Amino acid sequence: MSASDVLSAPGFLSRERIVAKPGFSRWLVPPAALAIHLCIGMAYGFSVFWLPLSKAVGITASVACPADMGFLARITSATCDWKISTLAWMYTLFFVFLGSSAALWGGWLERVGPRRAGVVAALCWCGGLAISAFGVYVHQLWLLWLGSGIIGGIGLGLGYISPVSTLIKWFPDRRGMATGMAIMGFGGGAMIGAPLADRLMKFYATSTSVGVWQTFLTLAAIYFVFMLGGALSYRVSPEGWQPAGWTPKPAASHPLITDHHVSLSVAWRTPQFWLLWGVLCLNVTAGIGIIGMASPMLQEVFGGKLIGVVATFDQLTPAQKGQIAAIAAAFTGLLSLFNIAGRIFWASLSDYIGRKITYAIFFLLGIALYASVPWSAAAGYLALFVASFGVVLSMYGGGFATVPAYLADLFGTRMVGAIHGRLLTAWSAAGVFGPVLVNYIRDYQLDHGVPRAQVYSVTMYILAGLLAIGLLCNLSIRPVKPRHYMSAEELARTALSKPAVAAAPSGVSSAVADGQGALIVAAWLAVWIPIGWGVWVTLQKAVLLFK
Q: What is the pTM of this model?
């Protein structure tokens, strides 16, 4: 059978077509998920494009639009440059459409399976980049918003949730670790993509171009290969599959972990769903507000101390400000490492101590750290300041990675992908609340004469207060009542079509015996080589913090 015959075969992307055959290793699924998440995670690194795009017309310096030019004229003008504040609206579009698309199409994903969802995600994310490239070429900002912001945002949502249900079913013994491995990729996407984009823009830059549209097209091509490879590598476990030698613990020993299932239409109406929605929203609101202001915060709080000069930020020369800006960039990169590491560390730890206890640690430790930041800043303890925010960002990432397993514990695994998609609307809300809260409080205090080094103190106390509310939400979560469980008829209706041959419940050992060992190594190398490169680049920059 030719390749064209395979591609045109009915159901090539269907869920039934990708039920694993005997000897398949479940350890091939996490690298497939990572391949997609590492690509869409570049959404976090889009700020690398803002400065070049702000002078796409002027090339060496921005060409300002007339002061009386209206909003519509500004986003359609090809004769003046865009403001960074206008470009930054892309972040809002990313996370609003990520959450809304995950909520709208989570149920569809459960029906059609991760392969089709992954392919659609690749088409949307990479197609959005291509549209954005055209938008930069003709200098139409609305095309960037439409391409990467809206269409790409839909790809973000579908790509983000595509592996969740599949991984949880392949790893019932280590749900947190499984989702942590995949969602770690979303945090690491910018760590790889941002320095790669910076190098590509420098390579493509000419006297008439800042090199952004060419970089968008190059990234779209690279990402499409990786995302399509990840999507086509997905396999779902057969109905009733369990790892060899694993026996589920009695439900009585873990009352929050159910062996029943709750449908999407019922789950989102339960108090457990909305309490967990509040838990995620408040944890993300605190973390995402810090991510957006990490660079200016370090510069304004420590000022000349970062380069051994006794001076506030406002007293520094332009050259000195350039020096501390480089140090602040290193700080931001270091935070991204904590964000990534926290996703796998906290999610894996939750498999042993439980999700509820893990989130309680997030909130209790977060309250203490946020409340102590003003003191460490005033005392000039740079290492303690950096360490505090490193731990905070690890818990921010850990919250994302742990929540799918928390949902599976509460609502079962049958519809967990769809329920997770609906829950991600909390991320969309936090993506608005966090930056607005931090930015507006900062601006208000600056307008009222508060020194730059002190403008974040009130913000830290407010964020600590939000975490206290999140702690109460988490402590209020109880097991789902039996009346919400799916009936036997509902379970039969949503079950996978049974494969002709059931997959062997033997995990890695049989896969290696069947000659898949080399394939497993190759799959993991394909994702760990770019991750390793990103870590190396980030650590090189982070050294600046402590020179």
A: 0.86
